[in-house]
């Protein structure tokens, strides 16, 4: 495994590795992706092997520009063109009926494909140098914490990756918003940095939200009930119960981690406290790195203070709901 600063030479080398059917990890604005040539079925199978990912879980194909939509999708509605024009490059993936040439290993056996143009200069430079689509889920073990720094990828996947392009910390910090446009009404499959309200303003119609239509036939990344989770058991509680729950855990465990939002706990050498920002976007950007920091310590439990349950926090709460267990 090579870990290289993402300069022009390293990007050219990474593109050559992709053409050889090798795996390359690269930064996007959301999280680091584990990439393979999306038209090389054997290379894509390498992603599933490296992650321990079930074969029926589809991947997102990253493309260099919206004009390439027609290379991968068919029956593209005007809504897809509108969303691409407004939000690409950026943290939005669109699910559309796939072209026949798209390998089913990429789509988890489905007849739809998820596409996005990432909003990170290194990702875009790699896509242009490679000249094709790159299938890329997050560069971590299946259902574990997504990586937002190159070192996270190296720690978790090591030699399963031919090269890691280091483009610094990811600026969004949670995975892309996913919208399914393959049906009669746009459907939000995964919340992200781009809010439902922003999407609806462009579409001129309402989105079907996961809570309104939870039994979608479309499988998409991040839809598992347990996902984004640390190895250390992680628990979540209301802000007013944070101190009580911390003390209750310390009665039976020698050391616990606390991911706080705004509550101040009394100093205690048995508590390892990280306090995240109070703005939703800043919290999201810091979340995975903070969870990884606590997960690396010899802790019995991680206790997370529930942040606000408002629309601005939808993406953060989606990740926390899947990474933690609620404490009454």
UniProtKB/TrEMBL annotation:
SUPFAM superfamilies: YrdC/RibB (SSF55821)
Matches recorded under Pfam families: Sua5_C, Sua5_yciO_yrdC
Nucleotide-binding recorded as keyword: yes
Residue positions binding ATP: 53, 112, 138, 146, 190, 228
Keyword Acyltransferase: no
GO cellular component, one term: cytoplasm
GO biological process: regulation of translational fidelity; tRNA processing
Subcellular location per the Swiss-Prot or TrEMBL entry: Cytoplasm
Recorded catalytic activity of this chain's protein: L-threonine + hydrogencarbonate + ATP = L-threonylcarbamoyladenylate + diphosphate + H2O
Binding-site positions, L-threonine: 30, 62, 116, 136, 176
Coiled coil residues, start to end: none
Family of the protein in this entry: Belongs to the SUA5 family.
Entry function: Required for the formation of a threonylcarbamoyl group on adenosine at position 37 (t(6)A37) in tRNAs that read codons beginning with adenine.
Protein name: Threonylcarbamoyl-AMP synthase
Species of provenance: Methylovulum psychrotolerans
């Amino acid at each position: 495994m090579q870990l290289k600063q993402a300069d022009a030479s390293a990007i050219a080398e990474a593109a050559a590795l992709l053409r050889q059917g090798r795996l390359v990890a690269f930064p996007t604005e959301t999280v680091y992706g584990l990439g393979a040539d999306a038209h090389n079925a054997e290379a894509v199978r390498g992603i599933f092997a490296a992650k321990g990912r079930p074969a029926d879980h589809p991947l997102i194909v990253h493309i260099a520009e919206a004009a390439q939509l027609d290379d991968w999708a068919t029956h593209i509605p005007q809504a897809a063109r509108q969303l691409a024009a407004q939000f690409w490059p950026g943290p939005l993936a669109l699910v559309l009926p796939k072209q026949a040439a798209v390998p089913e290993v990429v789509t988890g056996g489905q007849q739809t494909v998820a596409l996005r143009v990432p909003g990170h200069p290194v990702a875009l430079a790699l896509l242009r140098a490679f000249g094709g689509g790159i299938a890329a889920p997050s560069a971590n073990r299946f259902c574990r914490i997504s990586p937002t720094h190159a070192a996270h990828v190296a720690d978790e996947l090591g030699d399963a990756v031919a090269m890691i392009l280091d483009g610094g910390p990811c600026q969004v910090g949670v995975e892309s918003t996913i919208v399914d446009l393959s049906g009669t009404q746009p459907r939000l499959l995964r919340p992200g940095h781009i809010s439902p309200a922003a999407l609806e303003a462009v579409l001129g119609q309402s989105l079907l939200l996961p809570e309104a239509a939870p039994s979608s036939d479309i499988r998409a990344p991040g839809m598992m009930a347990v996902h984004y989770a640390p190895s250390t058991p992680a628990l979540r509680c209301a802000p007013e119960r944070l101190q009580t729950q911390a003390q209750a855990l310390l009665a039976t465990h020698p050391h616990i981690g606390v991911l706080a939002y705004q509550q101040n706990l009394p100093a205690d050498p048995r508590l390892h406290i990280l306090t995240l920002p109070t703005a939703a976007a800043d919290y999201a950007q810091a979340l995975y790195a903070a969870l990884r920091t606590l997960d690396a310590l010899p802790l019995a439990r991680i206790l997370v203070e529930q942040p606000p349950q408002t629309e601005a926090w939808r993406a953060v709460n989606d990740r926390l709901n899947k990474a933690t267990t609620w404490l009454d």
